[in-house]
Amino acid sequence: MSSDISSIFKAYDIRGRVGSELTSDVAQRVGAALAEWLPNEGPVAVGRDMRLDSADLAAALIEGLRLQGREVRDIGEVTSDMIYFTVGKFGLAGGAMITASHNPGKDNGIKMCREEARPIGIESGLAEIRDTVLAEAIAPTRNEGALLQKDVKSDWVQHVLQFVDATSWPKMRLAIDAGNGMAGAIIPVLQEFLPSVEIIPMYFELDGTFPNHIANPLIPENLVDLQKKVQSEKLDLGIAFDGDGDRAVLIDETGQPLSGTTMTAILAAYFLEKQPGATVLYNAICGRAAKETIQAHGGKAIRTKVGHSFIKADMREHDAIFAGEHSGHYYFKDNFCADSGLIAAVVALQVYAEKGKKLSELAREFRTYATIPETNFEVVDKTAILQRIAGEFKDGEQDTLDGLTVNYPDYWFNLRASNTEPVMRLNAEAKTKEQLATLVAKVKKMIAEPES
Residue 208 in contact with residue 52, Cβ under 8 Å? Predict the structure, then answer.
């Protein structure tokens, strides 16, 4: 097998172009390597999204698991958070999800976890799995593992509903844009238990070609249809999910999206009202409103590196009740410390129901700083750029928890190398738009300067 295949093993999962990089043969080998690597004995859950080749890749991965004697629970087309739930709820040895999340339809991937939905990242098992796949040194066992089909949709929805009291909600009207992704298969099951909620479905048809827009709600143009729907029909709010349903972005009644920082603050306040003094995590690129809100509500705020494998480990270490990422991933202690777009969405609806205010009014409390969308830059020498910018901003308070963060009283920025793409990402925030524009222009100029 070509060593070029090693490039599909990313920091948190496997991602690659179908046919040339991620093939059925590779998927089978990944399944066999996963079966060998998992520390615990027992069954492995396998799920998949709606991409055109996900079923074939899932079948190959299942074959690899079974050839190593692993019993497989095939849970079919699901959201990624349903894999984590299945592994945690039913005490399985691990799980694998065939999905490329929000990536375009020509890509696919594999997300994996071990017992208790603990993540498998490059520093927590994925490197070993990669090396086994590349070595092509796995001999099948004599006893092929059993294959059981299991539908977990009802179990999952009941689990989600335990986070809220939907029977107390007032009437509300909202639109949900599934982006032709997996949320379109789950929301109808949930809707049966939300008698006071009128849901206007958008792009619920499962279609891995993404005929309407890419299922990535962090890109503004992918929210346009939802924004128009919310405003034209005077709805209370809107919700957009990504392709594998583990991220949700809320749109207020004016059409304004809530950032990951705003959602982290809203959800943190809710959980701290329920459990005063609890620990809440926020990642290195969350805005200041996240930390300020956690502290204002009596919580212990801990800042983490970006990425689910780091956050899930930190949640267990610090016994955190909740964690939020600026990228729209939200993690819950009572969900096996795993992230879930659907749980985040229903808890936000619970807050909306309890507060009795418009969503824009709820969000306004946390929209206290001017900010930019995360901005990517293709660069040649990431280390040199970080060193140059650190020298230019040496009068600021700096840390290197994740990339370079520089803090000043009225503004801050973070510049870090992506864990999933060959780019650097810039996040910045300031008290005023003018301060923000000046800061960003200066940082961008430093990034663009030729090497001396």
Answer: yes
Place of tokens 């910018």: 389
C-alpha torsion sign, points 420, 426, 429, 432: negative
**Nearest alpha-carbon partner for 120 in 4, 56, 213, 35:** 35
Query: What pLDDT, on a 0 to 100 scale, did the predictor assign at position 318?
Result: 98
What is the separation of C-alpha 77 from the centre of its chain, rounded to a whole number of angstroms? 18
Residue 451 has a pLDDT of 57
426: which strand partners?
375, 415
Structure-token pair, residue 275: 């459990």
Which among 242, 272, 338, 307 is positioned nearest to 50, based on CA atoms? Answer: 242
Q: How far apart are CA 107 and CA 105, in angstroms?
A: 5
End-to-end CA distance of the chain: 41
pLDDT value for 139: 83
Q: Rounded CA gap, 429 and 266, in Å? A: 19
Q: Under DSSP, is residue 281 helix (H, G, I), strand (E, B) or coil?
A: strand
Give the DSSP H or E segment for 200: strand 197-202
Q: What tens digit of pLDDT does each residue of 98-111 get?
A: 999 988 888 999 99
Query: What is the rounded distance in angstroms from the CA atom of residue 94 to the CA atom of residue 83?
Result: 9
To 5 degrees, how large is the angle CA 81–CA 419–CA 381?
170
Give every CB contact of residue 103 below 8 A, 6+ residues apart in sequence: 15, 109, 243
> Tokens at residue 70, please?
């692993």
Please identify which of the residues 24, 80, 101, 259 carries the catalytic annotation.
101
* Predicted pLDDT at 276: 96
**Strand 424-430 with 370-371, pairing:** antiparallel
Say whether 168 is catalytic.
Answer: no
Phi, psi at residue 256, to the nearest 5°?
A: -85, 125
pLDDT less than 50: residues of the chain: 2-3, 452
Residue 150, phi then psi, degrees to nearest 5: -140, 125
Q: Each residue of 163-187: pLDDT tens digit?
A: 999 999 999 999 999 999 999 999 9
Question: In this structure, what token pair is assigned to residue 129?
Answer: 């799995």
Structure confidence at residue 70 (pLDDT)? 97
